[in-house]
Amino acid sequence: MSIPQTSAFKLRRPDDWHLHLRDGESMRAVLPFTSARFARAIVMPNLQPPVTTTELALAYRGRICSSLPRGSAFEPLMTLYLTDRTAPAEVDRARDSGRIFGFKLYPAGATTHSESGVTDVRRIDAVLERMSEARMVLQVHGEVTEAATDIFDREARFIDQVLAPLAQRHPRLRIVLEHITTAGAVNFVRAARPGLAATITPQHLLLDRNALFAGGIRPHHFCLPVLKTSADRAALVAAAVSGDARFFLGTDSAPHPRSAKEAACGCAGVFSAHAAIELYAEVFEAAGRLEALRGFASEFGADFYGLPRNTEEITLRREPWRVPETYPFGPDELVPLRAGETVAWRMAA
Ligand code: DOR
Ligand code: ZN
Questions:
Q1: With a 6 A CB cut-off, is 112 part of the ligand 1 pocket?
Q2: Looking at the CA of 44, which ligand is closest?
Q3: In the prediction, which pLDDT does 349 show?
Q4: Is the Cβ atom of 46 under 6 angstroms away from ligand 1?
Q5: Smallest Cα–Cα separation from 175: which of 135, 138, 128, 129?
Q6: What is the reported pLDDT for 1?
Q7: Which of 42, 112, 253, 265 to mutate to test the pocket of ligand 1 (most atoms within 8 A of CB)?
Q8: CA atoms of 188 and 183, how far apart (whole Å)
């Protein structure tokens, strides 16, 4: 007996609550993928040098908007990069701009371009207090950085040692634990006080750590936090499809030139913007919960950020297509997630 399959699925236009757009010609290469799918995206500030002030964020926003395809209504939601020296007054400037929607906490040294990040969260308590008053969201890269902590344990240790105490010290601060990767993180978010949520990437829903070593080392599956076990992946899928509004879409699409990924010391980041909503649709369909994609992709994030839900719709069709091996990326090229393989859903133009 054949199982009836949905052939077309309409949903409110989604938003991406965690995205790396880079700058210059790299940005121009990847932006159209996101603006074709998403109405808005939270844009990460880890440029070089990092986006640490309202002035820098507004200038970056201007460069993004002027690079959009003609007629696009895509809205970049800007964030600022916290450092040990961020002043509480920057929070007021950010809020008053009306264009900045959060501050990103990178523990110094945790990931790509995090060298200027925070060395000890106690140093930014005054900023976090001002953020609570201003109702600004804190976006967290949740990993400790000591070399002595095993890379697979860094998220768990961060939650226990840094995030749980921080959330208690700042009970009204709205916090998004970004790109969660473990069953422990799922349980932490479920048990947390109100005002704490998490984003989940497509790669952490689709892959476990074996994908890093399938037949040889696979640099294009390397991101931070690193992929975890199949049990962790199952817990992430269960959370995403559960309809719990504390879990929502954030791709963490993070493009790097092929030459920087396929290197003796390849950098962290998976590029997924070319098929982001389509890949999430695969996950939700495989779990028999396609309907739950609506909340996860298009509603819960907007509600958490206190922004209106989008009103337009997009259509996904069950129409397999082959992902190119590479996309152009300035003078280099970009290897996308699923390169040379098939994606089950296609977005209708
Ligand atoms: O894999 C990652 N890539 N994780 C991050 O936290 C940063 C990102 C990037 O900017 O490339
Ligand atoms: Zn990221």
A1: yes
A2: 2
A3: 81
A4: yes
A5: 138
A6: 47
A7: 112
A8: 9
- C-beta of residue 125 within 8 angstroms of C-beta of residue 165: no
Ligand nearest the Cα of residue 154 is: 1
The residue segments making up the domain with residue 326 are: 8-347
pLDDT tens figures, 95-149: 999 999 999 999 998 888 888 999 999 999 999 999 999 999 999 999 999 999 9
Establish if 20 belongs to a structural domain: yes
3 belongs to a structural domain: no
> Is 120 part of any domain?
yes
Among protein residues, the one whose CA lies closest to atom 4 of ligand 1:
224
Catalytic annotation present for 252: yes
Q: Which atom of ligand 1 is nearest to the CA of 223?
A: 1
Round to the nearest angstrom and report the end-to-end CA distance of the chain.
33
- Span 156-168, average pLDDT: 98
Say if 1 falls within a structural domain.
no
Predicted confidence (pLDDT) at residue 2 exceeds the cutoff of 90: no
**Residue with CA at minimum distance from ligand 1 atom 3:** 269
| CA 181 / ligand 1 centre spacing (Å) | 14
CA atoms within 13 A on the CB side of 35: 21
| CATH number of the CATH domain containing 332 | 3.20.20.140
Per-residue pLDDT tens digits for 120-129: 999 999 999 9
Least confident residue range of 102-116, 176-190, 285-299, 328-342: 102-116
The domain tally of the chain equals 1
Tell me what pLDDT residue 82 has. Answer: 98
Ligand 2: centre distance to CA 117 (Å): 13
Which ligand minimizes its atom distance to the CA of 224?
1
Residue-wise burial string across 111-144, b where 16 or more C-beta atoms lie within 10 A, e elsewhere: bbbbebbbeebeebeebbbbbbeeebbbbbbbbb
With contact defined as beta carbons under 8 Å apart, do 281 and 6 qualify? no
